[in-house]
């Protein structure tokens, strides 16, 4: 049934880059066989999922939605996808995304934008599904898949989840292995589940997470059984409300949503306190220095020799081949990030930009550490607005970046953070609330998420 939904919705939503219906059927059959033999079905036995096309999948084209990787079929499997297959899940296909996960609307994909299944009341204008995990969010929201993988560098799980009325959690940095995940900004990249609700996220995160010696920043810690630990009783817990997130000119409906969230968490037994995260206003500029810096370094590997595309003009030497391949292979946003990244890392500007950003990143982490002396989790909106129309922000990168204002601080600090659908805008579009937790406390985050459902 899911395979049929994927095929039927492809023209309208463009959520998948490649569909793999046979793989999903194979997992279902394997689960049937296990059931018949009385064997354990695994945490996700037979569940068909969408795989963001940033995860390397054995012999299945893996592109990061970039022309430069078109036709690349990895001969290895990412740890996270392998963990999911080991848990019994099956792959419906590879999901569209912003190119190299750079974007907030899925409009930077080489394979065309994804369209959100949602519409504003009284309008048929196509809306952005969020990004960069826009294929994942659209697929889950449109019921093409019960769940999908996402990755989050500065909000790419949480923002698309908020835009499409689904649930997504970015765990603590290091929980999910980055091995086999196409790198964007290695000190920030983290995989996580996107699904219909908190329980499904808890189940899927349990299958994805775990120590991996192949990732030098992988957390060597036991993976709790988050599903078994779920409880919406928040008595004894304290929720912090960061005053710096109450920005000037914030939409009244976002303020109302946030207040509603506070009331729900109080109903669940939590105490609510005001907290301060004084360096919040520096988070966006800091992120948009560090992420491009790391990206410019990570993307140096796409040289036309090792992967995908090669553009070899007549009579070209090696340098010409690099230049032609990269000029043809990378999209505009990716080139913009590489230029910003090499600029902030260049000898004359390194201290003024990169070193400074690293210092501010530490201050932002310290803000959170201090705030968590007073509270267990933090509640904030996920995004400053509901989903915008496709095309609305494409010519204005700065306004696109501003969309990430509430999601990048937790990324810079490596903290677990989740978006749960919490209401509708006046135009009938989904709005998300965000819960940020202490490092390693996915349990606290999931439980607060459950209380908001
Ligand atoms: N929108 C942010 C960016 O473009 C975040 C992307 C992400 O988390 N992958 O960098």
Q: SS-based structural class?
A: alpha/beta
Instruction: Tell me the β content.
Output: 5-15%
For this structure, the CATH topology of one domain is Amidase signature (AS) enzymes
User: What is the N-to-C order of secondary-structure elements (H for helix, E for strand)?
Assistant: HEHEHEHEHEEHHEHEHHHHEHHEEH
Number of helices: 15
Which molecules are bound besides the chains?
glutamine
Radius of gyration over C-alpha positions, nearest whole angstrom:
21 Å
Distance between the termini: 27 Å
What's the CATH class label of one domain?
Alpha Beta
Comma- or semicolon-separated keywords:
14% strand; single chain; 453 residues; 37% helix; 15 helices; 11 strands; binds glutamine; globular; Amidase signature (AS) enzymes
Q: What does this 3D model show about the protein?
A:
The chain is 37% helix and 14% strand. The strands form two sheets. Strands 4-6-5-10-11-9-7-8 form an eight-stranded mixed beta sheet, with helices on both faces. Strands 1-3-2 form a three-stranded mixed beta sheet, with helices on both faces. With 453 residues, the protein is α/β, with parallel strands linked by helices. The radius of gyration is 21 Å and the shape is globular. The model has no long low-confidence stretch (mean pLDDT 97). The protein binds glutamine. The site of glutamine (GLN) has 13 residues, from loops. Belongs to the amidase family. GatA subfamily. The active site is at residues 52, 132, 156.
